[in-house]
Amino acid sequence: MDFIICIAALVAAASANNFGQNIAQNRPTGSSSVFVNGVPPLTASSNLAVDGNFNSNFFSGSCFSSDVPANDPNPFWYVDLGSRVYVSGVTLTNRGDCCADRLSGLTIEVFEFNPTTSSETPEFCSMVIGGVALGQTVALSCSPMVTGRYVRIRKPAATDPLTICEVVVTGGKFKPTFTGVNPTNVALNRPARATSQFTFAATNLIASPGLAVDGNFDSQFVTGRSCFSSIIGDLTPTLYIDLGAYYYISSVTVTNRGDCCAERLRNIDVGILIKDPFKYLEFPHLCGTITGNVAGGANFTVNCFYPALGRFIKIQKTSMVDSNDLLTLCEVQVSGRFASHSEVTNKFVDDDVSRAMIANNEVPNNVENDDVDAAFEFDFNKDWQNLG
Predict the structure, then answer these.
(1) Are the C-beta atoms of residues 55 and 62 closer than 8 Å to each other?
(2) What is the CATH number of the domain that holds 198?
(3) Is residue 151 a contact partner of residue 106, using CB atoms and an 8 Å limit?
(4) For residue 136, is pLDDT > 60?
(5) Given pLDDT bands bounded at 50, 70 and 90, which one contains residue 351?
(6) Is 290 contained in some domain?
(7) CA 224 remoteness from chain centre
(8) Same domain flag for 149 and 203
């Protein structure tokens, strides 16, 4: 099965990135419902899935289960990891005494904010289609890695409960290594997010933002399964890439879709942000634009007007010809050089956050403009310690 990899491979990959620990154990959890059995008395609460007990016998009291589908037709379970981290994979232990087929039809997603109240588009991690044996533990890789605080496992349109005996989440604070002054592609396998992601249910294809930085240049949208696309109805579709550190960006190269729809790669601004766009308002530094006429499957390089300092790449379609004029990209490569601590701290003299808040009428009366930039400087210093 494509979505299930052996545990040894996942552990080896996690160890190489210092991600060997389970960051979900005994963390706060929640779920859409909880199954309660009267005889013998048993409450299959959400916290049992992260208690460190891998006993797969349901009636031993260490497995989570949602209520029956009549009461909860779209069950979900989530864990709060406590802070924003990188998530490299999720390992699930199936029920062992019966009902193995319940661990199927699952989608695993990562949120910045609580999924019970958030309206954000989550980052896609992986799926479980089925075929997990009684009591078996399967490891699923988020490829590429994603970032967030909450991991959610959902089972839409369920015909039976969502039942899991243990969940292990691998990840943590990522410390990138820099092998040269001019890395070839600093966006490869970096976390990516978007304002929307296209789903092609007939082929189980989710055109998630991570596919734009997976190193796969196959430009066939369906068969290649390596292109990102926004959805119809997203009027300002935007893709964000977190480079994980601060660089002077010199160029951004985009690979166009090759099987059809080449004309969609048009009316696009490529910008560079210093601050996390999901936490701070900031005017991006414009690297360049893509106006159109890029051949199907071809690469198009936007050379920045001048090397711009930043950590986040913002690729946004600024206008649409019709509802089918989606933001569709098969790969994004970013070239730049690593910026030193002093180079980044010298940029704090700019007031992008303050100007953006004023422009958007977002400045509370009791908060000084400089407070927002000071908050970012504090976050930056913490990030830098994590990178070191």
Answers:
(1) yes
(2) 2.60.120.260
(3) no
(4) yes
(5) low
(6) yes
(7) 20
(8) no
